Structures are given as structure tokens and as C-alpha cells.
Amino acid sequence: MAMIDYGALLKINGKIVNRNEFFMDMQKAVGWVDYPRIRYEDCNCLDDEECSNCGECPRAQKRHMSDPELGEWDHIIGDCKGNKLCIDDKIDQNYFAYAGDEDFTVAVYKTGAVLTNKDGSLYICIWNLILGDKEKYWEPHINRMARNITIQVGKMPVYIRIKRLGESRIFYMRFWYKNDLYELVYGYGIDSDKEVWDMVKTRYANKKTIKFVDKFWEEN
């Protein structure tokens, strides 16, 4: 079941690339991370990249958190050596899906997305189709159903189309980048496990939105 009832699906050239993968690995997906993954020689809690997996380590420093909607959890604030790990705007390991590469990266989480890159020259956040940056949103909260965004990546423009699917909190994003077609469906009720989506879809979407997402599951 999707954590807090949100998730994402990513297609590249008609193929779903994160099937049954609730959180994609940013390093594997786009070739970079925005915060160093530490590797200690005496670490016995490693991830697939042989880096310290502090999120699973019982020796990591944690702060207990609670939220009326999300419940309770332990938030990692430091590793076993005392180094700070809590970065409020960290993208790596905090988003469901990552698309693109180090020159242009799209990361999606819940009903929002971030457009960014490795050198830090690009950072645009999109929350429910409202644009902003790390400091504030650029426009009043309005009920948009779709929008088009153009991002200049070097000499190449990237045209991004985002639309809200009906009255749901599910969004569809589509763009071409370096001759590859990227498509994402993300938001409330989406799950990278097809069986889970089939179980919960009638709770979160109307018939038209369900039909769209069901078709998205079909691979070209």
C-alpha cells in the first residue's frame, strides 16, 4: 500500500521503469544526488551503492515526529558519527520518482514536483500546478486544471505539459527530453504496484480518471 496514500508512476518511451518501486533511487535514475551519500569504512549498514544507509541504521540519530495526518515516525537528523543529515529541501530519498539526468531533473512527491539540475542553476517547485522556488510561491493559490512550462536546458528548450486529472488530486506530466519521451502520473491514490492500485482506485478517483490511469499502466 502506498505510504500516506500517495505515489508515482514513470514511463520512459512507453515503458514503466519504476514498477513496484515505491521510492526510486535518485543516483540510478538521473545520475546525481543533491546531498552526499556517506561511506564509512566501519559501517555495517550499507545500501546497494555501498554507501551508508543511515535511514535503516539503528545507530543513526533520530528525532521522534508526529503529525495529525501522517501519524508518528522517527526522522533521521544525524549519522552515527554525529554528522548532520537533516536537510529540509533535500531531494534525494525524499521523492517518489526521478526523471531526466544531471542537466535536467524532475522529481515528484505527493501532488508536487521539482524541476532542478546538478549545478543548482535551476530550481522550480510546482505544488498543485502553482509555481514557486525555495523561498515562496510566485502566484496566488488558484484552481488550475493544466499548465504548460518551458525550461531552457543549455540551447535546448524543454516543453512540459502538466494537467490535473478531473477533480482528483492526481496529475499527469509529459515532456520530451534528449529524444526520450517522459510521462509521469503522480498524486493521491497512485501506487507503483498494479495490484494495490486496482484495490484502492475507486476510493480516490472517478471513472474517467481511473480509465486514464488504467491505460497508463499499458506499455507500448
Structure, explained:
- The two termini are about 25 Å apart.
- The protein has two domains: about 5-35 and about 100-215, no CATH class; about 40-85, no CATH class.
- It is about 10% helix and about 35% strand.
- It is mainly beta and about 220 residues long.
- A six-stranded antiparallel beta sheet has the order 2-1-13-12-11-10, with helices on one face.
What sort of overall outline do the alpha carbons produce when their principal axes are compared?
globular
* Tally of helical segments: 3
What's the number of structural domains?
A: 2
Distance between the termini: 26 Å
Strands in their spatial order, largest beta sheet: 2-1-13-12-11-10
Helix content: 10-25%
Rg calc: 18 Å
Strand content: 35-45%
Number of strands: 13
Strand pairing plus helix content: what structural class?
Answer: mainly beta
Instruction: Please describe the biggest sheet, giving its number of strands, its sense, and whether it closes into a barrel.
Output: 6 strands, antiparallel
Task: Name the average pLDDT.
Answer: 88
Order of helices and strands: EEHEEEEEEEEEEEHH
Uncertain segments of ≥5 residues (pLDDT<50)? Answer: none
